[in-house]
């Protein structure tokens, strides 16, 4: 029953104020006012909150959902993911395999560094062939050579071959094609326009590709560590060879989305990427960033081994990739404005700051303390890579796009090689805990180069806009 209060108000509706509820109507009848019961709003608010949450989730996923609406895109994306998974496995597998047989992380780090170092020469040549003859015609023979190198390394370690054969076999793996670069080239071709819609799609595609790279480096070390420690030392490398062979062939078979070979006018060859203003500076940043990854990998494996938890090394490394993948997906859903060069400098600065966390956490001598530090440290790496790859795509001539992106990956792998060697040396001579000083030092170098490039850029050039 309505509550009755006396009131001299006229016979018309008036409204109560305050109380945080919706204004309640007071119906004046005769000399009394009938106060209607307050409307229940909890159900409406809960329903509204659910709708807002669902709408926010839909907006967050919408840029990625639109990428896969046309046919053929899921196929090359999944095949590329399968072919890239060995990239996260092979280094850890080689380190565990060689260290378990020869008992030296310095040797293991040096051998693991040989492949990326050789890629600095081989990979750009392979990418140049891709630009000239197409992805499918080059991918198949390149995968065959790389798999042969992996199998040779297994045989050399298994049967105690001379140490120089380990380096020779590892060098052959440099023929591994840059599947990630070729996948990004497909997206760049599919969204090659200059409209805001195409630019947003390229940003989302680059973020998705980076997240898949991080997924490979998240799952790869875990798979490698489990296989090498629970089965036999060579199991990780053998599995990586099988995945690369199968994934590479499947990727090459996706001809519908393969970009056509770009033709330049007769007598006017495309400018070499290394001669494009601004690109060498970007490559220097990628080189320093790669050193962060290479050192972090070797040092973490040695740190976990020193605590008697070698099998957990892959899982701990996966947390760094998990943080990076999550940050990359969120980054890709944002509508970014402002100069990309300045954003690149900010991302590298954040990476340098976050990479100090594993160094601080390693002094505790416990993996549960190190794990969240690695998770947080990874959150700036994907935005750095996404922004850097976007700048490379803007700067590189279309006829040599695969070569330009492969040069970026090659610089990254060269940095991984240097970081692996530096990390292995630091572990041997300073201890695993102090080995964590190498990643932040390399990240600071990357931030300094990116900041200097952003500060010296004159005007809103292609690489800065």
From TrEMBL:
Per its UniProt record, what Pfam families does this chain match? MFS_1
- UniProt keyword annotation of Transmembrane helix present: yes
Q: What are the UniProt keywords, alphabetically?
A: Membrane, Transmembrane, Transmembrane helix
Residue ranges of the TM segments:
75-99, 105-126, 138-161, 222-253, 282-304, 310-332, 344-367, 373-392, 404-427, 433-455
Q: Which residues form the signal peptide?
A: none
Asked if the keyword Transmembrane helix belongs to this entry, the reply reads: yes
Region Disordered: start and end of each range? 1-22
Superkingdom, natural source: Bacteria
InterPro entries linked = MFS, MFS_trans_sf
Q: What is this protein called?
A: MFS transporter
> Which organism's genome codes for this protein?
Streptomyces desertarenae
